[in-house]
Predict the 3D structure of the following.
Amino acid sequence: MIGYVTIGTNNIEKSGEFYDQLLKELGAVRVMEADRFVAWSAGEDKPMVVIIKPFDENPATVGNGMMIALAANGTEEVNALHAKALELGAKDEGAPGMRDGGFYCAYFRDPDGNKLNFFCHG
């Protein structure tokens, strides 16, 4: 159902480098880019992750309560992706571990402060 999500940034170059390295771990590559945005996808039939400078020309800000969850293939991949995000300069927002209902995940904030997580079931 979801075609793409956008993540606000104030620095396309820095954020682009962060997501290039992080999303390649999920098999995603840049599929579109312009002056104000960059988009990645892991396949033609897969949703895209897009970083974007706001079109209203105001600074990008973090949305309170907004978070993007990226699916991983098991707990080991969640652990590795979370470690990679931190290595690339992300801030830890919740170490990898089991959460309520058999939901295994790890939370982080990207260089612009946007909250994301990697997750798997079981």
About this structure: The CA atoms of residues 34 and 104 lie 35 Å apart. The chain has a mean pLDDT of 95.
